[in-house]
Amino acid sequence: MALPMARRAVSCRLRSGLRGLCTDRQPAAQDGKLCLFSGIQPTGIPHLGNYLGALQSWASLQDEFGLVLFSVVDLHSITVPQDPDRLRESVLDMTACLLACGINPDKSCVFQQSRVPEHAELGWILGCLTSMPRIRHLPQWKMKSQTQKNEGSVGLFTYPVLQAADILLYKSTHVPVGDDQSQHIELTQDVARIFNNRYGDFFPVPTALMSTSKKIKSLRNPSVKMSKSDPQVLATVRLMDSPEEIGMKFRKAVTDFTSQVTFDPEGRPGVSNLVAIHSAMTGLTPEDIVQQSSGLETAQYKIVVADAVIEKLTPIREEIQRLREDPGFLLDVLNRGAQRARDVAVPVYDAVCRLVGLR
Fold first, then answer.
1. Given this model, what pLDDT does residue 181 score?
2. Which amino acids are annotated catalytic?
3. What is this structure's pTM?
4. Confidence band, pLDDT 50/70/90 cuts, at residue 31
């Protein structure tokens, strides 16, 4: 079944803030449909960087693909210690955040990873095809294992393989990712090729859709990206922050001793980070913002940026609060999503088992 030309080209052009990186061949679509998959861990309320780098783009991609899946990847979250009660609440928090940011459960399959056991089962099969040196090569393992005793857990070591299973289980053709995940997508592509070389042409080699959004930096240390785990409370703007909290964080944002507003990421990272945030909030270019801000001192400009962020995030925060007051609805979304996901996953996994010899 031939794919429409417009859909075949989606991976090779700019689309809603993402750029496609073409693989060595056109992906074979599941039942003639292009399939997009992405996941997010339920480890705290998303921050401004998460929204601009991923969630905003996810919402805009829902109409571009025949099958769209967004998973709350709780199996990945337990590679580090979690409080069980808090984890259960965090799954619902993240589901509410996805919906509030524009993910429509009638258009996209929104589900909890652990409710589709085929993820872990396929992860085991793919792990048996993946060498340990290949995983050790990933810089994330070196970085994350340093924060855990005894060089980290087996789960932390092998989670890139589970990530590959997440993607391949649905014969996904496209995966929106940030730059820091590019090597994990390369691993998924390698695993797909290894499986296909051994058992026949079965899995598509997925295309990474790399975000073109400017990286949002910490408000307290603009040399590093904004992070949910940053111990400095003032460094990170979260989607649930009140207008007062957002205003305070921007007033305290680190800049420099020059009062003029300019965009020079290398020479003035703090002020340039504010300009990048302002640009993402408004759609204005950094050049336009600098021109419009002529005559403003940095302290005044911080208030302008804070107001733009508050205007954008306030309806999202209010919608998250509304959704969290109805956990039954969120659980229903996850239950329906898990069933829809399994409708796709089970036949794929059964076919893999037959190819491998387990059926």
1. 76
2. 144, 225, 228
3. 0.88
4. low
